[in-house]
Amino acid sequence: MMLEDFNEMLNDFIEKHQLDSDPHNFATMPPVKGELNGLCNRKACLKPGAIYYNHSTKKHYCPSCADMLNDYNRPGAMDLYGHDLCTRASKGD
Ligand SMILES: [Zn+2]
To answer: What does 25-42 look like in DSSP terms, one character per residue?
Structure first.
């Protein structure tokens, strides 16, 4: 799914459910792709629980995708960042 399509879908959802005017519904908004605790940024995945921060794309990924990305990119990431490409994001990041 393209980001634009997703945003459009999200906007439709917000309009239909009048989330802006209802604080309770607003709190239960669908999670956002690539955001911390949102949906995994990988198009083929999009699972909720994106708690790993990818220092290259600056987006968040689920643990299984982060593992996969780390395994695949470890030598390059160690070279560039001195740590894995995806690291566990802590609250407040
Ligand atoms: Zn994922």
So the answer is: HHHTPPPPBTSTTSB-S-
Short-list 59, 56, 48, CA closest to 74: 56
Q: Are strands 52-54 and 86-88 parallel, antiparallel or unpaired?
A: antiparallel
How far is it, in rounded angstroms, from Cα 17 to Cα 38?
Answer: 20
pTM of the shown model? 0.66
Residue 15 to residues 2, 31, 82, Cα–Cα distance (Å): 20, 16, 44
User: How many angstroms separate the alpha carbon of residue 26 from the centre of ligand 1?
Assistant: 25
Q: What is the pLDDT of residues 21-64, one digit of tens each?
A: 555 555 666 789 999 999 999 999 999 999 999 999 999 999 99
Q: How far is the CA of 86 from the centre of ligand 1 (A)?
A: 12
Please give the torsion angle defined by the CA atoms of residues 83, 69, 6 and 21, in that order, rounded to the nearest 10 degrees. Answer: -40
Q: If you ran DSSP here, which 8-state letter would residue 82 be given? A: S
